[in-house]
Amino acid sequence: MLEHNNIVIFAPPRSGTKLLANILEDYGYFKHGEWFSQLSTEIKNNKAVRREEYLKEVWSRSENEFKDLKTHEHRLELYEKVDRSVITIWPKSLLEFPFMLYEFSDYHWVCIRRDPWQQMLSWYISSKNENFDGIKTSQPVIFKESTFRKIYWDYHKICRLQDWLVKNKSATLIDFEELIHGTSTKLGVWYKVKSKDEHANLESLVENLDDVKSWYNKFEVTRLKN
Prior knowledge:
Blueprint (H helix, E strand, L loop, with lengths): L5 E5 L6 H10 L3 E4 L7 E4 L2 E4 L10 H18 L6 E5 L7 H7 L4 E6 L2 H14 L15 H24 L2 E5 H5 L28 H17 L1
Parallel strand pairs: 1-5, 1-6, 2-5, 6-7
Antiparallel strand pairs: 3-4
Helix pairs in contact: 4-5, 5-7
């Protein structure tokens, strides 16, 4: 994988994107960070750095999507291509995806895939605790069905997009468990894991676990029927 000059990491939150970006940085790649994650990052010195507090959404859905698109276009104008670079992208809106495919058409795309149940729990818990960097200990949370439903379908939408990228573009699919345990051979080199999964015991952080399992099974039935 390291024979590619520039790399895009395309995967949902809590799937090992930061770990992989840090590994690539160790091998000489310039790390742009989560450049297009505008709610959680701001641009400083040609890098996306984490905001102290997440931006709160105060507009209606349509207004918010319009504002997001304008901000995305602005960040695209600011982006400076650097030789041997890595950028992590996670489109908040699929409206942004065509821009990313075009802008990074000559980059190698890397997709990370995590077990869906583990992915969804970790994603939800991190979001509620605003703890995507693992700098504090997440507290147990009560899941809401509407929010969990969105995460469920977002996960499977991104899996379809990842599969399309692997089939139709220059793309590599990496297994999360192999990456986090330092055993992935997809990089083609030895690497050191400097971080750990802060949500090691996910189910213990779900206060209404039986409800969440029931929703998950219901969504699975619906998805597999389609």
